[in-house]
Amino acid sequence: MRVLGMGAVVAAALVTAGVVSAGNPTKEKIARTAAGNAQAKAEVVRGADLGSGWKGGFKKPDLSSSMPCTSYLPKQSDLVLIGVAETTFSKLPFAVDSEAQVLRTASMVQRDWQRTILDSRVIPCLRQGFAKALGSTAKLVSFGRIAFPRAAKLTRAFRAVFNVKTQIGAVPVEIDFIALGSGRNELAVTLSGPAAAKAELHSTAVRLARLLAGRVRP
After folding, report:
1. Among 149, 198, 207, 216, which residue's CB has the most CB atoms within a 10 Å radius?
2. Residue closest to 198 by CA, chosen among 103, 128, 108, 94
């Protein structure tokens, strides 16, 4: 698995605001509207937010994503998704993935946040998902919650560090995942890059989180 694509690949395991697989009875309802999709598109990272040298743009969101373990399947059947958008950008050796989801009501976001961000079973589940996603090409070193400025009403950040096998030995890589919630909106930003660039990754994550939070509409 390529280091460049790791952020987007593992983001699928981390976008805890996402839906569960279609075969699961707890799946959320999909009722996308033009207004909901337009709102989501306005709340993701754009090329202009990153500066020169970055390549990427909008991609088709994966609505089949699920929590990456079988031990925890949070209830989703009382949630209704009306809008979603996703962008992904890369600039060697960094990658950024951004997703916005709009639910029908703010109370749905509150319920989803309790189940898929705050529940004590979430971190062990995501840790397991990371280890599985990395396969034999890398080894997970650590995963857990990190301190992060309160960019939105609901803010939580996580960090994964893993060693990628290369011809010159193990290379430490870091992924920072920031989840935001406000009103009817759930946002997720994932940044990946060399662990040696931890300070740059963190400062970029803070800047993007605040930028996206400022775009959120009720």
Report:
1. 216
2. 94
| Tokens 């009306």 found at | 82
| pLDDT at res. 151 | 97
The separation between CA 184 and the C-alpha centre of its own chain, rounded to angstroms, equals: 17
Contact between 184 and 204 under an 8 Å Cβ cutoff? The reply is no
Residue 7 has pLDDT above 60, yes or no: no
Burial (Cβ within 10 Å: 0-12, 13-18, ≥19) of residue 101: buried
Cβ of 88: how many Cβ atoms within 10 Å?
A: 21
d(CA 13, CA 84): 17
Report helix, strand or coil for 168. Answer: coil
Locate the domains of the chain by residue range: 3-215
Paired tokens of 72: 């925890």
CATH number of 3-215: 3.40.1000
The gap between the terminal CA atoms of the chain, to the nearest Å, is 39
Band of pLDDT at residue 26, cut at 50, 70 and 90: low
Q: Are 64 and 50 in contact (CB under 8 A)?
A: no
Cis peptide bond prior to 172, omega within 30° of 0 = no
Length of the chain: 218
Question: What are the phi and psi torsion angles at 64 (to 5°)?
Answer: -100, 5
